[in-house]
Amino acid sequence: MLGVQKLTALSDALTLRIHGELVHLQEKGETRTNSRPLTVYYTHHQVTQGYTHRGQLLGAAVGPGGEAQFVALDALFARGTVGAYFERIRRNETVLDAVALRRSAPYEHDTELIGGLRALLLRGAFSVSADVSRTYRFNRDFRENDRSWRTELRLGWSPKLEVRALPKDR
Q1: 30 vs 27, 38, 72, 169, CA distance in Å?
Q2: Do residues 120 and 101 lie in contact, with contact meaning Cβ atoms separated by under 8 Å?
Q3: pLDDT 10s digits, 154-166
Q4: What gap in Å lies between CA 79 and CA 128, rounded to an integer?
Q5: Cβ(112)–Cβ(138) below 8 Å
Q6: pLDDT (tens digit per residue) in 30-85
Q7: What's 30's DSSP letter?
Q8: Quick count: other Cβ atoms within 10 Å of Cβ 136?
């Protein structure tokens, strides 16, 4: 996993942010014959739910063997942000269905393309955020294509906390 972010002040009131993330959980293909198979991230040969930390599953949302790329451009103001983003996700490359399917159709992948716009408005302790995106998912769950719109509106409240000095021990 790798993430980068660059902020550039265009004026006292406006800052431009470009950021991106890469997730790559695919293993290099095995080139030798008669060798032990490569392990898959987040899986275990005896524990069926995979690796956990105190019962919580570990792993990225792209699934075993998946990968993702994300890039966004945002304008940051004193009272909020406005921006656009694009994401590509290839999911579950090493699940049994995917491995079996690629024996007969090696170019079939569960791939999703997402493009969207987002905004955040801050007013004192309150915030309002909105996100609208268009999604096209090729070969969803290795079965069929799927298109969808996603809209999200969130309201938030963050009370201001008063910070006091702790009393000194005597």
Answers
A1: 9, 7, 35, 62
A2: no
A3: 888 877 756 566 6
A4: 11
A5: yes
A6: 445 555 555 565 666 666 666 677 777 666 777 777 889 999 999 999 899 999 99
A7: P
A8: 14
Strand intervals (E) in the chain: 2-9, 15-24, 52-53, 56-57, 67-77, 80-91, 110-123, 126-140, 144-157
75-104 residues labelled b (16+ CB within 10 A) or e (exposed): ebeeeebebebebebbbbbbbeebeebeee
Strands ordered across the beta sheet of 15-24: 2-9, 15-24, 67-77, 80-91, 110-123, 126-140, 144-157
Quickly list H helices, the chain. Answer: 96-104
CA dist 73 and 7 (Å) reads 10
**SS3 of residue 122 by DSSP:** strand
**What is the SS3 assignment for 98?**
helix
Q: Length of the chain, please?
A: 170
- C-alpha R_g of the chain: 22
